[in-house]
Amino acid sequence: MVRNALAKNIFREIKSSLGRYFAILLIIALGVGFFAGLRITEPMMKKTAVEYIDQYCLYDFRLLSTLGFTEEDVEAFSSEQGITANGAYTVDFLASVSGGGDIVLRAHNIMSDINKQDVIAGRMPETADECLLDARYYSSDILGDVVTVSSSNDIDTLDTLSYDEYTVVGLAYDPYYLNYERGTTSIGTGTVTAFAYIPSEGFSSEAYHELYLLTDVSSDAYTEEYDVEIDNYRESVDALLQERGKIRYDKIKSDAEAEISDAEKELADKTAEYENEKASAEAELASALETLRNGEEEIKSAEEELSLRKQELSDGEKSLEEGFVKLAESRDLLEKNKSDAYSLLDEQETELLRNKEEIEQGIAYYTMMGDYDTVASLENSLSAVNDGLDELSSQRALTEASFSSLENELEANEELLLNSQDEIEAGRREIENAENTIEEKKREIESGYEEYNSSKAEADAEFADAEAQIADAEAEIQEAKTKLSELAEPDLYLLDRDSNVGYVCFENDSTIVESVSVVFPMFFLAIAILVCMTTMTRMVDECRGQIGTFKALGYGNFSIQSKFLIYSGSAAVIGWAVGYFAGTLTIPRLIWSVYGIMYGFADIIYVFDPTMFILCFAAAILCSCGAAYAACYSVLRPAPATLIRPKSPKAGKKVWLEHLPFIWKHLGFLKKVSVRNIFRYKNRLFMMILGIGGCTALLITGFGIRDSIQDVVRFQFEEVMKFDISVTVSDSASGDIIGDIESVDGVEGVLPVYTSTSDLLFRDTQKSVNLLVSENNDFGDFVAFNLDGDEVPLPGKNEAIISVGAADASGAGVGDEITLRDSDYNEIKLTVTGIFDNYIYNYAIISPETYEEDFGTELKANTYYVNIPDDSKVRQASVSLIGIDGVSNVTVNEDTVNRMDSTMNSINYIVVMVLVCAGALAFIVIYNLTNINIEERIREIATIKVLGFRKGEVASYVMREIIILTAIGSVVGIPFGYLLHGFVMSCIQVDMVSFQNKITPLSYILSLLLTFVFAFIINIFMIRRLDKIDMASSLKSIE
Amino acid sequence: MGNFVTFENVSKIYDMGEVKIPALSDASFEIGKGELCVIVGPSGAGKTTLLNILGGMDRLTSGKVYLDGMDISAFDKKRLTEYRRYDIGFVFQFYNLIQNLTALENVELAAQICKNPMPADEALDLVGLSDRKNNFPAQLSGGEQQRVAIARAVAKRPKLLLCDEPTGALDYATGKAVLRLLQDMCRKNGVTVVIITHNSALTGMADRIIKVKNGTVSSVILNDNIVSVEDIEW
Questions:
Q1: What residue of B is the nearest CA neighbor of A954?
Q2: Residue A245 has what pLDDT?
Q3: Which residues, listed in sequence order, are joined to residue A821 by a DSSP beta bridge?
Q4: Both ends of chain B: CA-CA distance in Å?
Q5: Biggest alpha carbon distance in chain B?
Q6: Is the Cβ–Cβ distance between B57 and A1001 less than 8 Å?
Q7: CA torsion sign, B100 to B106 to B110 to B113?
Q8: Which of A294, A462, A771, A850 has the least C-beta neighbours within 10 A?
Q9: B145, B181 in Cβ contact below 8 A?
Q10: Of A463, A1002, A937, which is closest to residue A704 (Cα–Cα)?
């Protein structure tokens, strides 16, 4: 029963003063929301990164060796407890993507277990000539395009990449590259533009360039536990690394030595072989020569013989001829004789025959005649004739015989002669043959000589060749030996995640958020406490009579307090719940999107922190209930009767302003009222100023952030880098290229410069800067070096001027000595003679003499800055420029401006957030205070209403105070705004951009204006409220 | 003698949603110019309501109210404000001075908005607080505060001076002094004074006595036997 009425009392109280209820609710919500939202951002950011790192297996250790690693090394590490090892290939190369200008890409192989890719478009490569490109720098339009390995890469690079072209099949993010930085390189412009991932088969390298290790450490990244657990592995990994390094060294050494000795052996063998072959060849040649010589000799003797024989032969022929002649003569003679003989014989014969005939005849006749004597005589004669014939015939026969034997002799002679002739013929033929043979032989020998000569020449050439080769081989072996002797033990590096730029930067940047998250919420917390205090005090004051009554009724202190505790507590609880979730869901997301400039690899993960949840709850309750309790405390002490009597109003006092009569007298008297009122309630005065001041400060900070950030890009490219286009040329381009550049339409002014990435070292700091050297120090029209409007003179010998960002980051100032270190680790020392304004990236300028003398190389321009005054020609000019032979890339500053502008826009969200915040703050504070103000002075206000004050006069009676307080508060807020802005800017320093802390006068004016607008809006609500005050009930007498 | 102030069948019902509270029903009376009228009645009778309506601080539900020929009941808010500004002087039971202002300034507060005010100094002199002009209410006693309130009211040279339980928070002697002052205002300065009280002893000083009971005027009596304040005892 009793409790019921109390509960009803509470509910009705809430209902009847919703404004106040919401004031508490809202301020708690705001305070909790901001506190929780900001404080949870860093853990959320960390968690997002940690999960990402975990999911995509960022390496735990990265091992480098100047001798590379082998598959055995990978296995050796993998076989260690809790470690997985992957071998990696890394190569920087010049490439043209989709036919564009040359850029530097860093290629990695896709490893099976470590540094996995988060493919956000397309797919993973399936063949060795496909690749993934950097999702941060490329959009999905590029899928299907080709990355062409530029032919201007050096031979080692070209060898390391198996293919000339890789097709882009996907875009990915990677835990190895958490932020936008891709690294520096020694080729091209000195900066890696983007990464590319290629399957391992897309590389042809004898050894892995790096080794990555993943341990079974389960702690989250960035935590101390992680560091401790990793340290547990460090020693053993390092030991193994050293061991493997030694093994590799030994192996390379022994392999090399083996190779060398093999080579030496081979060389010796081959040399021996050569010698042998040479000897045998020479022998062959010699024998061939000898053979030829012999042949020649033979020929000679043959010829001699031949000529002898010829002689012989001709002698023979001669004698033969003579013989024949003789023979002929003999024959003739013979014939003659023969014929003579025969003729004689014939004659004789004939005669005989005749005789015979005659005889015969005669016989015949005589026979007939019977002259047998005659016949007989004749017969005798005949017989004589016949004998004579016979004799003749035998003579003939003899003659024949002798002639025939003579003939035979002659014939024999003839045959002899003929034989001789034949012989001679034969001899002649033989001679002919022999001659032919000799000729042949001669030719043979000639060709033999030819062959010999050519063989010899060939042989000589081959010998020379072989000897040269041997000499080369010897030289090579010697070289190899020298190299081997120079082969140092490998430099081994054991790196962990702290050497990964993205990883470290992320930690730094999230820490920035954390530091900001400490200041802002404190502010709101303070306001929240004040608001709660004043509100509850007011409420308790109002209920004073009620409290007295309750007490008189016999309710205990606690019951009475409980009403206020529940009132404020419930408002706080709702505010806490709303604020916590609204804050933790929106603020981290907002901040994350801002950081998207640099990160943006995944959506932020919501983290619910029970501790903070409870902490906020405690704070909210403490704030509200604590205030309620404190307010009750003073009220519950006096006796009930005292409480029932109306509280004596706070005494009026003379204010300090009254002591200045020359002001005081002239103040209209209602104004005097206002002045007195203002100083009467110190609490409220203080709170109002704090609240308004805070509102103005926040507005200034918000606008200031926008001022500082938004024009940075424009300033950079309009006031500092005044040129329009930057042309990068390849190493092979000659200095004459400047003529080609100048001849492009629209170009009026070309400045050759040398740029490279260097490290600026000063004391303990190390900062990456762009080194810029112009051949003739003629920067003027192209780059302006100013500091706060004053020109900064160019550096002389061994001097340097550096950009503001570089100076701030390193701590170096004018007069300090800094060291610049290039990518080959050459260092030069310079004195800083000037610091100039610059907003994007960081620069160090040195003079050409300094460069040439200290780095020891001649200055050769690798970039040309181009001025194109007519904006309409810039686009066309850039196209023409990229077509020039030797130009490897063209960057139009306008493009950079546009790209950066759009990213800067996300900062606007933060600004809006701050402004909303400020507005909310102002509203709550002013509303609350005004409410209290009015409620406390309801009698007063009713009185003047009764007195006949018009609506406007009543309004201004109250509002005047508010306006004055707003004015004071906002003026107080200006310096705080300035400081807060400075603090916030220092927290959000981004590495590549140095924001200028700038707040335009317009921003100040806007902030003040807005503050007043907020106050004004609330005033309007308040005036309505005033109007509603019922005089009669307000002035009710306490009967 | 009447017709300076006329209440004609005035009803006032407070409408709070479900509940309607009749504070006045059918109240009618008249007051003459320069009269000192005392309105008596028990607590909750409706006296204050009556005064409030008369003083232009509240609107009636039905009926008519006239002051010096003006139909007050027909006034809108703005006109009522003007009415209060120029024609009415109010004295509350709990003084309701502005704590932040000195006595003089409190009077000036009212004087400044009138057409033909009495100088603040003069008003304070009138109530006998010449040497307390520069004190803040906190530095004044109850009676002095009330006198300041009266000075504030009369400085306006109102047609009507309305006093709601002016002596309610004061002791006997102080109360009497205040009443004397009021009487003087009426008799010497010709201000029409209406005093509300639940103390019937005060009716002796009145020219006209209006009795209010249960939200109606139960009687209007012209006092034959006007007694000076000094002679009144309670």
A1: B81
A2: 87
A3: A759, A827
A4: 29
A5: 53
A6: no
A7: negative
A8: A294
A9: no
A10: A1002
Q: Residue A1039 has what pLDDT?
A: 41
Chain B neighbors of A672, CB-CB under 8 A: 101, 105
Which positions in chain A touch B55 (Cβ < 8 Å)? 946
Contact B22, B13 (CB under 8 A): yes
Q: For chain A, how many helices (H) and strands (E)?
A: 25, 22
Query: What span, in angstroms and rounded, lies between the C-alpha atoms of A107 and A93?
Result: 8
- Tell me if chain B has a CB within 8 Å of the CB of A651: yes
Average pLDDT of the residues of chain B: 87
Q: Which two tokens stand for residue A573?
A: 């609880």
Rounded CA gap, A130 and A110, in Å?
A: 11
List all residues 6 or more positions away from A915 whose beta carbon is below 8 Å from its beta carbon.
Answer: A698, A699, A702, A703, A1010
Q: Do B99 and A948 touch (CB under 8 A)?
A: no
Looking at residue A651, what DSSP letter applies? Answer: P
User: CA distances (Å), A503 to each of A137, A598, A864, in order?
Assistant: 19, 12, 35
Instruction: For residue range A937-958, list pLDDT tens digits in order.
Output: 787 888 888 888 888 888 888 7
Enumerate residue ranges in chain A where pLDDT < 50.
1, 1039
Chain segment B12-57, per-residue pLDDT in tens: 888 877 888 888 888 899 999 999 999 998 877 788 888 888 888 8
* Contact (Cβ atoms closer than 8 angstroms) between residue A907 and residue A593: no
Q: What's the pLDDT score for residue A493?
A: 79
- Note whether A212 and A88 are within 8 A (CB): yes
CA of B102 vs chain A CAs: smallest distance (Å)? 8
**Is residue B227 within 8 angstroms of chain A, CB to CB?**
no
- The maximal CA–CA distance of chain A, rounded, in angstroms, is 246
pLDDT at A363: 73
CB B101 within 8 A of CB B138: no
Q: A617, A631, A521: which is closest to A570 by C-alpha? A: A617
| Residues A617 and A581: beta-carbon distance below 8 Å | no
| CA proximity to A622, closest of A560, A568, A691 | A568
* Vertex A405 angle, CA A403 and A408, to 5°: 105
Quick one: closest CA in A to B156, which residue?
Answer: A947
Residue A721 is classified by DSSP as: B
Helix (H) or strand (E) holding A496, with range, is: strand A492-496
User: Which run of H or of E encompasses A845?
Assistant: strand A843-846
This prediction has a pTM of: 0.59
Helices and strands in chain B, H and E counts: 6, 10
Query: What six digits make up the tokens of A714?
Result: 């424009």
How far apart (Å, rounded) are the C-alpha atoms in residues A12 and A523? Answer: 33
Nearest residue of A to residue B102, measured between CA atoms:
A652
CB A436 within 8 A of CB A325: no
Rounded CA separation A66/A252 (Å): 12
pLDDT of residue A1: 43
Which residues on B lie below 8 Å from A943 (Cβ)? 92, 96-98
In this complex, do A652 and B99 lie within 8 Å of one another by their Cβ atoms? yes
Phi-psi region of A834 (alpha: psi -120 to 50; beta: other; left: phi over 0): beta
Residue type at B201?
A: A
Buried/exposed A95-128: b ≥16 CB within 10 Å, e otherwise: bbbeeebbbbbbbbbbbeebbbbbbebbeebeeb
Distance CA B163, CA B196 (A): 6
| Residues B136/B129, Cβ–Cβ less than 8 Å | no
The answer to whether the Cβ–Cβ distance between A1032 and B52 falls below 8 Å is yes
- Mark yes or no for CB contact B100/A946 under 8 Å: no
Question: Looking at residue B185, what is its pLDDT?
Answer: 86
